[in-house]
Each structure stands twice: as C-alpha cells, then as structure tokens.
Amino acid sequence: MINTTELKAHNRKNRIRESNSYKIFTVVNALIMIFVSVVTLYPFLYLISQSFTSDKAIIAGHTSIIPEGFNIDTYKYILSKGEFLMYYKNTIVYTVVGTVASLLFSAMLAYPMSKNELKFNKVLTPFIVFTMYFGGGLIANYILVDRIGIKNTMGGFILPMMISTYYVLLMKSFFQSIPKDLEEAGEIDGLSKFGVFWRIALPLSKPIIATMTLFYSVMYWNNWFNAFLYLQDKSKWPVAYYLQTIIRGQGANDPDAVSVSLNIKSCAMVLTVLPIVMVYPFVQKYYVQGMMLGGVKE
Amino acid sequence: MQNNQSLNWQPRELTRSERAKKNFSRYWQLYVMVIIPVIYYVIFRYIPMFGNIIAFRKYRAGGNIFGEEWSGFRYFKQFMRDHTFWKAFANTLIINIEYLLFRFPLTLIFALLINEIRNIHWKKFVQTVSYLPHFISMVIVAGMVKELLSTAGPINSALASMGHDKLNFIAMAEWFRTIFIVSGLWQSLGWGTILYLAAISGINPSLYEAAAVDGANRFQRVWHVTIPCILPTITTLLILDIGGLVGSGGAFEKVFLLYNPMTYSTADIISTYVYRMGIGSNTGGNFSYATAVGLFEGLINLVLLTIANQVSKKVSDSSLW
Question: Which CATH superfamily includes the segment(s) B82-316?
Fold first, then answer.
C-alpha cells in the first residue's frame, strides 16, 4: 500500500519535472520545424518570384522574394513559343509511354518473384538482385544503346531505365503481403495463374501501383541525362534537357552556353516542376506505405 | 489383407526432373510472364556488365562491343599513373564521407523530432513539405543553386548588406563541397526520414508504457526504447551508404551540372572523370581506359558493401543478404 502511494507520488513528481522541460522542447521543436519548412520552400518561392519579375528589374539585377514589376509577360512569351511547348509535349509522351511500360514489365517480373513455391526463383532472384550491386558502367551502357540502334529514338530515352530493380523488389514485397486464400479462391473459381494475377492480385495492389506510377513518372519526367547522351535531334528533347541547356552557361565559361534571361529560365523551371508539385501530396499516403514495405525485411 | 495394403500405399518419391516438370506444368504461366523482363535484364543489365571486359581488351569504334584483342592490365596501369585520376578518387571519397557525416545523423535526428510532433496536421504538413525536394529534377536543383548563388542572387545580396564582398561561389573550388553538401541535405533530409518513421511506428507501445512506469522521462524513452528498436533500420541504411562511399550514386548528375574547369580541383569525381575520358566531346574517345576506371570504382564498391554487410551481420544481426 505504501509502495503504490510512493510510486504514484514519484510518478507525479516526474510528470511535473518532465512537463516543464518537455514544454521547452516542444517550443524549440516547433521552431526547428518552421525553420526547416521555410528553408525548404524558399528556393521554390524565389523561383516563382523571378518568373513574375519584369525584364527591367532582372536587367538591373533586382531580385527578391517579392517580384518587382509583377507581370505575366514571361509566361505569355514562353507559352506562345512553339519550342517550349514541343519539349513539354515530348516529356508528356515519354512519361506516359515509359510509365505504362515500366509498370507492366515490373509487375510481370515482381509477381512471379513473390511466389515462394516457384522453383525458378532460386535462380531468378539472385539474377535480378545482383544488378543492384554491380553493373555495366556509363561507357558499356553507352556502347550498347549505340549498337542496338535505338540512339536518337524514344527507345533510347526510355529503355535504359525502364525496369528499376529497387522498385521491382518493393512490388514483390507488396505482392507477398496479399492473403493467399484470396488467390486460391480465384483458382478454385477456375481462374488461370495469369487470371489470378490480372483479376485478383492487381486490383488488390492499388497502393503499390499508385506508388510505382508516381515514382516511375517522376523518374521519366525529370530525366535529362539519357536525352543528353542519346537524343541528338532537338525536336526529340524532353523539357528537362532543354532546361539543362539554358541553365548550363550561368557562372561558367562555357562556349556552348545559351544566354537566356533569368525570368525566362525561372518561368520554364516553374512550369516543369508544377505538375509534380500538384500531384505528389495526394499520393503521399500510398508512397509512405510503399516505402515501408521496402524497409521491412522478410 | 488387400485393403490394408492399399491403405499403406505411399506415393513413390518423385525424381528431381519429375518434380521440376510438375512445378513447371502447374506454374507455366508465371514462367511465361517473366520472359520479357528476363530478356530485358540480359540485354540492358548483363550485356553491359560483361561489356566491362573492354577494360582488358582493345576497343575499336564500330568494332566488336566486347573488344578486339587482349590488352591485359595496360589501361589500369595507365590510369594508376594518372594524377588526375587520383585527384578524382580522393575527391570522391572526401565528398562522400563529408556528406555522410552530416546527412546520416541529421536524418535520424530529424526523424526523431518529427515523431515528437503531437499535432497531426502540423506533422503531415512538415512531412509533405520536406519530401518535396526529393521529387525535383537534378537539373532544377542545379538551376536553383546557381540562381541563389549568382552574384545578383539573395545570398550575395545578404553578404553585401553585411558589408562583405560579393563572391562568385560557383566558380570557387573552395566552396564546391559546401554547396554540394548543403544542397544535398536540402534534397534528401525529409525523404530520408520515411524509413525511420516507418520503423518507429512499428514499435510496440507497451514498451513505452513500461519505460514510463519505470520512471523514464521522454528523452530517456527515446534513448532507451526508440533508438534500440530502430537499430536494425539504422544499420541497414548505414551498410548501403558505406557501400556507396567510392561510388557516385546520385552524385554524378549534381557534380556534372554544377562543376566547371575552375572547380575541377575539388569537384571532379571518378564518374565525371570517366565521362570526360570516355564520352566528353574534347577529351573523350578512350572507351577502354574510361571503362577500366569505372570498373575499378564498381569493384571497390562491391568489396566495401560486402565488408560492411559482414561486419553488421556479426555486430547486429541485420544484413542485406
């Protein structure tokens, strides 16, 4: 009896002591989080501000977080220029085609890999996973793409990155979490193995499919290096590579540098980032869950 | 009697090939599914992997992709004597180690701090904002860095208002590593917390209750419950990072986009050196030489990863394989 009273008193004392230092911590923590959020968002806000700044202010070197001489002429100029829209359209086409191909073939690999009863997996899994740790370098890949004749085609841009082993393993973990009974019930109802995959496993995999759609489409949307290596025709460039060509010159002595004014650069960057910023928060629930699967070891 | 015999009847053990046949006839549709992906891996992953052989063979433009004739370790000896290679090798190590020393602890601390936020909406907001940079193209990141650091940019304006001289950061070798690390933290800090937060959310709440009964305050609970519980995650992530110490991973794109001849002395890393030797327009064309350098880098990484994996298997029971 005495013991419990003592314990209660001890706990109460503890809670009071804790609540004071914890209060201080809560305030400090909130300040840290505000700082991180502001620092993270600042470059975006600065970019947006630049894109609305007038030519006059840009030439005078007046830049700040609030646009000087606010106007939307830069946007009008860029969007009326056929060139930018062409690059943008290329990016959309590559992203859609690439993402569909990536999803399809990654799922076709990940689903059989998720079946422990498939004997072949003893060979298949190491065969696939090994490529994560060792591979052909830049040069060997370059020679391959050059030699199989997909240089300067959409295939040259998409194929070298079409299946990501890491994403395949995330999908595999998800497929393994699907209850076996559901798949067996489908087989009893007369579905083939392929039917079970298409009619049962895939419809149950919406979270991982949403995650993979986001990851793969961001990968294609952002890629400029494959275009830089493999796409010679300007008419085939994606917008990310076009951005690289206009950003490159800044601050360096580059003879190929294209001189483009700061507000046009910023405007092009804002337009390129915009679709991603508008989509990713809505898929957050899914990709956090999807990434968790990768962290959980079997 | 006969009945008894039939009850005791056992199926004959199937031979290996019979079992394989049975497995195949039952699952053949799954085997068919992997055909295209497997062909993809052979062409786009394994042919380039074996293409590394040109590090030991003379390669002629337009000739055999696996080279023409054996040249032994000629190209390896060549780059081992090259001062520029060793500079790039040292830069790779320095930049990766410095980045890891900042990123690794800061990510863990940031995850623990996010976990302490009690207001769900505020927590979600911080997470969403901090994930954003992860989704941004390296081209845009490089563009932002250049705009923010330009002589007309906000950093230099702030310096000027404090009475300092303006600095052309992008052209100064002594600033390159700082720029690389700070922009890297900006890009990866938030995203890096996902796996930690996932691991933390999997901790059994009764452990915290037990610690509270024992009189542990909040900080002690983090130290004695949270950290030990997420130790396997910490180890796994550390193994992966150590395996990449000599590699370039995501570093290649950023260095390539941000460096220039004025900053080569601190910025040039192995992969950008490989690029310039192999493909770069003025200096390129030495495919075998560049492949030898790239292969050297890849093998060191493989060895480092294996060592880190073995050590962690011994020390903490968590490993990649």
Answer: MetI-like (1.10.3720.10)
Task: Dump pLDDT digits (tens) for A28-43.
Answer: 999 999 999 999 999 9
For residue B35, count CB atoms less than 10 angstroms from its CB and return exposed for 0-12, middle for 13-18, buried for 19 or more. Answer: exposed
In chain A, residues with a C-beta closer than 8 Å to the C-beta of B215 are 10-11, 14
CB contact under 8 A, A252 and B171: yes
| Domain boundaries along the sequence of chain B | 12-74, 82-316
Asked if B150 and A251 come within 8 Å (Cβ–Cβ), the reply is yes
Please answer whether residues A36 and A229 qualify as being in contact, where contact means their C-beta atoms are separated by less than 8 angstroms: no
Phi and psi angles of residue B70, each rounded to the nearest 5 degrees, phi first: -65, 140
ipTM for this model: 0.90
pLDDT tens digits for B174-200?
999 999 999 999 999 999 999 899 889
Which CATH fold would you assign to the domain A79-295? MetI-like fold (1.10.3720)
| Digit-coded pLDDT (tens) for B226-240 | 999 999 889 888 887
Residue contact A131–B257, C-beta within 8 A: no
Is pLDDT of A203 > 60?
yes
